[in-house]
Amino acid sequence: MALGQRPDYARIARHVINIDELFIDYARVFLTSHDRQAWDNVVRIAGGITEKNTPRNLQGRDSYVVALEQYLSTTRLHDTILDGLRTAVRYDKTYFDKIVASLLPLLGKLTTRKISQLLAPDYGDLNDPRPVFNWQQAIIYVGLDALSDAEIAAAVGNSMFADLVSVAGHIYKHGVMDGLPQTEENPAINLHCDEFSELMGDEFIPLINKGGGAGVEVTAYTQTLSDIEARIGDRAKADQVVGNFNNRIMMRVRESATVELLTKQLPQVDVLSNSISSGVADSADAQGNIGFSSNTQDRMSSIQVPLLEPASLVQLPKGQAFALLEGGQLWKLRIPLPDAAHDPLMPESITHIAHYMEKQYDSTPIWWDRPETVVTAKNDPILWLNDSETTEKQTDDTPDTPPARER
């Protein structure tokens, strides 16, 4: 950022492999801003650097790195970024390469082929045919394909969560109208994370712990509690994650620890038990008129039992669930299952949804009010409207603003 460059995975990979280039570029900008003759002195020193007069810990480094180390040792210039880079290049090059070796396989995956063009596009390329969307007030689908490559999915997902935490912190402090005189209520940001245990990391914890103040509402889907614990590697952090969710909806599960997340939150209830007993006894008086006596007793007792047994969740049919909502109210849910064969509005696939989103989303302020005709699998045209057909459609004579590249 200090060099006026946008940080991305490609630049990070390049500077991890060759940190000398980053150190030289930043030192040139920093020294020139303080003394116009400073860089000329560094160039003069670099011209006299040979292998014999290079310190042992700087063997294999660029001659300008050695010259900068000598020049900075004789001056009193201090800068946080420059000092950090200087500390990194002081390491023996072989030792430094061993430190960063674990990063290279992942960075290599993130900076090759199409994924590099997706994560680190060239924003100045005017020949790039890909459209640039304005994602404000929109639904964004992020497919991370964790089944194919969980490592890349986790890296991209954690980066996305880290960005969301940063944005949520800014909204919490300044609101969405930062710098403008008018005020506006912060809109809700609904985040739905399917199989979120694959994306779990330390970045996700502050998002669910403090993101509510910025309007971030997280709905997470996972299989078991053990998935979260295995991903984070700490039971205390796993309990912290689960404890920050106010509502819990649980379908059929097999793990007892996961079932107890719901059943242990429920109180004990009193159940009345009714028992009937009867008996017959012979009379001891042989001369009397009563030959036997009988009695019948109706007894009612109260016992405490759990409101919901773990076996009730283990045996749930498909499409049914128990939900703990609104501070502890227990609900039994029966969820209608979608049937693509008889639903004319059901898209054919995720690709079909992506094509529709590409046509629908643009940078104009009233994109959501535009009708769109969608052809289903049965070739039946369906008109998608924001309001009912009886609602009068309003027009806007304001000319559309040209699309701008995403910032």
Automatic annotation (TrEMBL):
InterPro entries: Conjugative_coupling_TraG/TraD, P-loop_NTPase, TraG-D_C. Pfam families: TraG-D_C. Residues 190-318 form the TraD/TraG TraM recognition site domain. SUPFAM superfamilies: P-loop containing nucleoside triphosphate hydrolases. Residues 385-407 are annotated as: Disordered. It comes from the Bacteria. Gene3D superfamilies: P-loop containing nucleotide triphosphate hydrolases. Transmembrane segments: none annotated. This is Type IV secretory pathway, VirD4 component.
